[in-house]
């Protein structure tokens, strides 16, 4: 094993607990704390080669950043009810440390996570309205700037998100 | 007397009853309802004349003569005279169908073809006019004991003349025949010989005694079919079932004579609808609106089968009934999911306080209630899926994503080992999770498919909502060589072809930074760039021995690709698969998807430089006079494989031929042969 990488059980424990907790918080925010939505995303920047991140795609629509997602949910979306039916995740990069950011030595702070979620969403408060099946893939990266986030800073933020209604 | 077997509806007994009745000469009248609905009502001449008399036929004609003239102006020229019949079918270029029976009893029937060849020869010879060109049977087919021939109209009389002729020791019956792709509904006029039935008079003649038990089941059915036809407007796609009790035809049939017959009437009518429009698609296409007004309905229970028969109805008029409340409507609480317009005017229910609110809640796509607009189509769309559905976002880098997908899925289906060797390394990760609760698409067949079994996957499923222990979460995450073992245990799959069924797939892709650097020093870094690919689709699951399809599943699968030492300089960093019940592809639209990828894939397979063996003007891979379409396709495939493999066309064609002209399989086979060094140097194109 490459020196410096946390043991597999630590990686699995952190990644699985972090991703299930994150999705729970995130969907809760989409449902009832829409003014916090943008705080789930990394601040806009660009990857090597100049492409902007985060990358957010919902049903093929490109959203520029977390602020745009928040704006859409606050102004365009009816009450929304998510029911997560399955979650799975992999550690993508156990040793992620973008340049210019001082990193602590904890595994959580250098880990990127691929998360895939399957569930239903109802775009209405009424239980009788139809539910749609969705699939969502996210890439979470460690939150590099933990100062700005109020009392309980998030450990991970969304770097990439792809949401699709599939049924 | 010959006996034929027929299936009929009976109003007074169980709706479906199989009886035998005596067969007599028929005439056939084709009732044109629309392009999608053609009914052959078969009747005796005498009956037709009687039925035509004294009341308007549904097209306004009276009596057999008038009818015949009416229909002759359409596609069917009926000569309803003294048992003379017709059978012109313009859809077959003016040919007339004639049925020939009795030949099964002939000596010729023992020959290999059952005597058909000899019979055909016999009919042509005997049917030929004394002078002029010999008779020719244009088309023929066999249905059971009937040899059905299609001949030009001028030959009809000569062929019918052969009725009663002796053929190889058997007497032939030759008569006009209906068109078999359309439902043939028989009316038996006198109900003679109906099993278990008294030998009654003609039910239609005995109008003084409209007891349904006296009405032949078949004639009732035909009569109801005609009532249905009368009440159907094909251009409006409207079925008008209003004021049924005032319908003289139904009164005459006695369907409202007793409560028992009345209660059977509507279900039987719906059964007939099920036969006339025999698929859900035909129903949805042909009947968008139904009027059930003015029927004294105090509950929809009496007509509840309407919802089962026309589930995708758009407009429903229940006005002028006696429906008091939602209790009386509750049978349709979960029906008519596509209903757009509901009319309940002049029903007590309309004065309820929550009337509009409840109706809107029950029918989420409802746009209009009575005459008021209650939603816009945009409202409906928004409540279903407020995030507009756009074609896939496919932002590839140097076609790496498109190439990976087009290579990977065919390999995954036929040769998982090669897929692993080509794209996975010791650090690649894979896991599968099963979403057993996922919504399925509501297809007609999904009902009898039964619940999907997940036995083959459930012990591997890494649904973190269910698998909460760390040890299980760890053991269900497969890395490197563990992936091979896992894939070996997973059922064989068959994904639809990306090229032939692009609409079955939704594939999105974009660059992703921060991936592990395989050449990195092991120290934390910003990582390297790669691609993330999200795939949604379905596959068939194959039986390991028979290769037959045993199940159908939908999946969501995300790949993260990074730089590596695999084919094309890539590696799969992560492959994460979610399985769910069949969900179809409707959600991402049928026509607009996959354009980017299919364009990219087409770009990959299309030669950008001319093929050395296919100079311009050579015509290889292009249609030419005398060249079959199959050959053109095979040439195109050979060029494609030749480009991919650098093998000469001849060798590419050979490889394809051995792999059933499946490029995916041929490619896999090629790679195997390369690995075994089985491909000679001469097979390859000479590169200058």
pLDDT averaged residue by residue of chain B: 76
The overall number of domains of chain B is 4
Give Rg of chain A in angstroms: 16 Å
Tell me how many strands of chain B there are.
26
CATH class of chain A: Alpha Beta
CATH class descriptor name of the largest domain in chain B: Alpha Beta
Task: Give the % helix of chain B.
Answer: 25-40%
The gross shape of chain B turns out to be: flat
Q: How far from one another are the termini of chain A?
A: 42 Å
Strand share of the residues of chain B? 15-25%
Low-confidence stretches of chain A: none
Pfam families (chain A): NTF2
InterPro entries (chain A): NTF2, NTF2-like_dom_sf, NTF2_dom, Nuclear_transport_factor_2_euk
Protein name (chain A): NTF2 domain-containing protein
Organism (chain A): Endocarpon pusillum
Give a summary of the structure in a few sentences.
Chain B: Residues 50-92, 608-627 are annotated as: Disordered. Chain A has 167 residues and is an alpha+beta fold.
Main features:
heterodimer; A: 167 residues; alpha+beta; Nuclear Transport Factor 2, Chain: A; 6-stranded mixed β-sheet; two-stranded antiparallel sheet; B: 688 residues; Alpha-Beta Plaits; Leucine-rich repeat, LRR (right-handed beta-alpha superhelix); 7-stranded mixed β-sheet; 21 helices; 26 strands; disordered N terminus; NTF2-like_dom_sf (chain A); NTF2 domain-containing protein (chain A); NTF2 (chain A)
């Amino acid at each position: 094993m490459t020196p410096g990488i946390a043991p597999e059980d630590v990686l699995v424990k952190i990644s699985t607990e972090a991703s299930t907790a994150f999705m729970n918080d995130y969907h809760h925010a989409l449902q009832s704390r829409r003014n916090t939505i943008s705080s789930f995303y990394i601040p806009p920047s660009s990857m090597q080669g100049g492409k902007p991140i985060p990358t957010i795609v919902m049903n093929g629509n490109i959203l520029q950043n977390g602020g745009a997602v928040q704006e859409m949910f606050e102004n365009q979306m009816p009450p929304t009810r998510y029911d997560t039916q399955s979650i799975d995740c992999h550690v993508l990069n156990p040793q992620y440390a973008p340049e210019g950011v001082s990193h602590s030595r904890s595994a959580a702070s250098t880990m990127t996570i691929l998360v895939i979620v399957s569930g239903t969403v109802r775009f209405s408060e009424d239980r009788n309205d139809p539910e749609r099946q969705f699939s969502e893939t996210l890439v979470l990266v460690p939150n590099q700037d933990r100062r700005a986030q109020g009392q309980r800073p998030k450990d991970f933020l969304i770097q990439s998100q792809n949401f699709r209604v599939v049924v | 007397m010959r006996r034929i077997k027929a299936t009929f509806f009976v109003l007074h007994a169980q709706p479906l009853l199989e009886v035998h009745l005596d067969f007599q000469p028929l005439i056939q009248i084709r009732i044109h309802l629309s392009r999608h609905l053609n009914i052959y009502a078969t009747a005796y001449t005498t009956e037709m004349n009687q039925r035509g008399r004294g009341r308007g036929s549904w097209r306004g004609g009276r009596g057999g003569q008038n009818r015949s003239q009416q229909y002759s102006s359409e596609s069917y020229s009926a000569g309803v005279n003294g048992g003379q019949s017709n059978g012109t079918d313009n859809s077959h270029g003016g040919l007339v169908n004639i049925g020939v029976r009795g030949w099964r009893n002939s000596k010729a029937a023992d020959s290999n073809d059952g005597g058909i060849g000899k019979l055909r020869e016999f009919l042509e010879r005997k049917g030929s006019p004394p002078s002029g060109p010999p008779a020719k049977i244009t088309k023929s087919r066999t249905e059971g004991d009937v040899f059905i021939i299609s001949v030009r109209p001028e030959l009809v009389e000569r062929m019918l003349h052969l009725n009663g002729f002796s053929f190889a020791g058997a007497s032939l019956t030759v008569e006009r025949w209906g068109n078999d792709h359309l439902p043939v509904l028989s009316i038996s006029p006198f109900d003679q010989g109906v099993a278990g039935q008294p030998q009654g008079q003609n039910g239609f003649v005995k109008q003084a005694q409209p007891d349904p038990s006296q009405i032949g089941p078949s004639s009732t059915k035909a009569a109801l079919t005609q009532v249905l036809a009368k009440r159907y407007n094909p251009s409006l796609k409207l079925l008008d079932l209003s004021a049924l009790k005032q319908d003289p035809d139904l009164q005459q049939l006695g369907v409202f004579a007793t409560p028992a017959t009345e209660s059977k009437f509507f279900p039987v009518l719906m059964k007939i609808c099920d036969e006339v429009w025999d698929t859900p698609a035909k129903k949805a296409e042909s009947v968008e609106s139904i009027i059930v007004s003015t029927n004294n309905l105090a509950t929809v229970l009496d007509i509840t089968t309407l919802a089962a028969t026309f589930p995708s109805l758009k407009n429903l008029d229940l006005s002028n009934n006696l429906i008091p409340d939602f209790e009386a409507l509750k049978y349709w609480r979960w029906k008519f999911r596509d209903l757009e317009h509901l009319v309940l005017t002049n029903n007590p229910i309309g004065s309820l306080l929550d009337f509009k609110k409840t109706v809107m809640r029950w029918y989420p796509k409802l746009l209009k209630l009575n005459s008021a607009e209650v939603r816009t189509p945009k409202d409906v769309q928004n409540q279903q899926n407020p995030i507009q559905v756009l074609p896939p976002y496919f932002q590839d880098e140097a076609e790496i994503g498109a190439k990976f997908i087009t290579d990977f899925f065919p390999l995954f289906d036929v040769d998982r080992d090669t897929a692993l060797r080509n794209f996975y390394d010791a650090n690649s990760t894979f896991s599968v999770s099963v979403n057993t609760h996922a919504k399925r698409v509501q297809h007609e067949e999904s009902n009898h498919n039964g619940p999907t079994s997940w036995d083959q996957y459930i012990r591997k499923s890494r649904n973190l909502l269910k698998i909460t222990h760390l040890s299980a979460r760890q053991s269900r995450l497969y890395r490197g060589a563990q992936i091979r073992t896992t894939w070996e245990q997973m059922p064989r799959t068959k994904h639809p072809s990306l090229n032939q069924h692009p609409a079955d797939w939704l594939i999105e892709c974009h660059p992703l930074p921060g991936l592990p650097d395989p050449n990195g020093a092991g120290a934390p870094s910003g990582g390297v760039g790669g691609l993330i690919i999200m795939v949604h689709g379905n596959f068939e699951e194959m039986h390991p021995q028979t290769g037959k399809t045993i199940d159908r599943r939908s999946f969501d699968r995300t790949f993260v690709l990074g730089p590596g030492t695999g084919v094309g300089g890539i590696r799969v960093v992560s492959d994460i698969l979610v399985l769910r019940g069949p969900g179809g592809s409707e959600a991402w639209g049928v026509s607009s998807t996959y354009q980017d990828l299919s364009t990219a894939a087409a770009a990959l397979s299309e030669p950008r430089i001319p093929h050395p063996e296919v100079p311009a003007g050579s015509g290889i891979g292009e249609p030419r006079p005398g060249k079959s379409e199959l050959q053109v396709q095979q040439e195109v495939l050979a060029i494609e494989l030749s480009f991919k493999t650098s093998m000469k066309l001849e060798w590419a064609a050979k490889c394809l031929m051995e792999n059933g002209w499946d490029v995916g399989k041929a490619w896999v086979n090629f790679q195997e042969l390369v690995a075994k060094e089985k491909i000679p140097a001469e097979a390859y194109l000479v590169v200058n």
